[in-house]
Fold this sequence. Notes:
Elements: H1 2-19, H2 34-46, H3 50-63, H4 68-80, H5 90-95, H6 100-123, H7 128-156, E1 158-161, E2 165-168, E3 177-181, E4 186-193, E5 196-200, E6 206-210, E7 214-216
Antiparallel strand pairs: 1-4, 1-7, 2-3, 4-5, 5-6
Helix pairs in contact: 1-6, 1-7, 2-3, 3-4, 6-7
Amino acid sequence: LRLASCTALAMLLLCAGAMAAAPASPTPANEYSAPALYNLANAYARQGKPAMAVLNYERARLLSPRDPDIRANLRYVRETSGLPAQSASWFERNARIAAPNTMFWLGLAGLAVAAASLLVGKRHPAHRFKLRALAVAGLSLAGLSLCDALATWPAVHQAVVMQTTQARVSPVTQAEPLFSLKEAQVVAMGAASGEFVLVRSPEGRKGWVARADLEPVVPTPPAASR
């Protein structure tokens, strides 16, 4: 029982930590839903604005990772913009089940069920086998939530290149360019220094890019931007 309780506590801490980066919905909430973002992305695509289209498709996909229309339209815009197909590991493709917030609460519910089942089983040993099975089911749900959080983690730290720009060797405007980034490319964000952000391209190359040329997939909360 003690081992199971410690395991449940550890999974709770891991799940809470991984989901701390889940996107917060701005107000009003209906402006940041998968359907609204999908429709907005379609409008930008029709207007010939690939960066804004990709940004909103990526945001919609974060909230609805299994939606085939979002994936198909995102792929089409990337192809017509001359961008290579996005690559993702088997884990990232299959572990993302639902919106991060949904999986977070399901994980907490699973942990609560597991903890309650183990505690009740200690007081009522006659039902311990049924309660242990219920605890295993709860821990399994928490495990799915944790896997979803880990698979979502890379997307939470991505940004879309809003206009063709240069990645530089250091975070100053006068620094030597290392490579170019095309409009609508998706890059991974790292450390920040002044008005520059260290990014990693899909090919694995790293360089400093002006913050003004990037838009994070997960919007920065207003309080954090002050």
